[in-house]
Fold Amidase.
Amino acid sequence: MSAHDIAQAVRSGQHSAVGIAEAALTDIAARDGAYHCVTRSLSDRALAVAAEVDRAVAEGRDPGPLAGVPFGIKDLFDLKGEVTTAGSRVLRNDPPALRDAVLVQRLIAAGAVPIATTNMDEFAYGFATDNAHYGVTRNPHDPERLAGGSSGGSAAGVAAGLFPLGLGSDTNGSIRVPASLCGVWGLRATQGRLPVEGSYPFVASLDTVGPFAGTLGDLRLCFEALDARPLASVDARHLRIARLGGWFMADMSAPMAKAMDALAAHLGASELIDLPEIARARAAAFVISAAEGGALHLPRLRQRADEYDPAVRDRLLAGALLPATLIFQAQKLRNWFRARVHEAFAEVDVLIAPAVVGEAPRFDQPLIEVGGSMVSARANLGLYTQPLTLAGFPVLTVPLKVPGLPLGAQLIAKPGREDILFALGDRLERDGVAQARGVNN
């Protein structure tokens, strides 16, 4: 059932929120072993929250627009009474959180039920959700392939039908990459629009948060609850749309190139816009991420480096050693590049680009071709997402209706214009161009 259908059934009394929660917990126990989306089942908390929803219905009170809807929570969001591990055993002995993260509070206030914490790359530093401590999340469409990361547990959980909504974070593509590879809707909100309070930081100056869902309507319900205000209505027929060229048209797989050509043709997006210095923008995102992440973890690394995932530890240590002049140059480029992206929107409302180079890589397929060279697939899943990170603009990941494995596109709008993205996404869903891919469709 979609989030919309669950909420309607619970609000009408056709189903109880407790019954929905029990069914979801049973389903996770039975099926998650094949995918490893979940790190902790929140049985007691889920049933207690669901009982409150049922009590509101019985007493004639409004249970909220997401009444009884289960949601998964990337394990970097605080949950009252639970230790926030951020995918690392380094934090496993920390005291439990005293309160829920703000976004978790808002979903519960809207009637949603926290059902499980979800797997992630350690400290959100990765694109694969391959965690040395908690295991690898497998793509529900082919368990021999990556789900993407770092929010892969939430994206794969939605794709597998374990829960209709998932919370994730996106610094360099951690919502956009797994949404594309798992075939679900994902939103990286405008940086700063949704509160990050109660989420473990990775790169404070770049971190954003957002939801996953199996339908755009569900994503909208979730985003409006997270944003605490309704979206404005926009007529998608009059939107000016262009396609990002250059960097964003190179290195795609044949299926992705075909899908993007079809999307551009359907939208009449014949104009190509080339953003300048994309390679340097991506490099700047690497530098800023490494430097801020390294600085955050350096005190703990000096004491307990052996407890980190070795791959994450080495990148954090390298980041902590970056010279100040290089970090300054990266931040200077970030400001310059953001201004150039703003200029690109002078004559358009939406820019479109691929989310990833192609289909989800196999675990035994460590390399992909980029720029004529064979490079690490995992390190380059953010090829098209990392440069856009610097601008802080909202991006909607659209699951394209294509044969074979899922593919996703990025729709980019000016800051604060999520309403435009939802309007265009709705048009694509109604036109049959976009459709989320659950394991049964």
User: Anything to note?
Assistant: The chain has two domains: 3-227, 237-280+325-430.
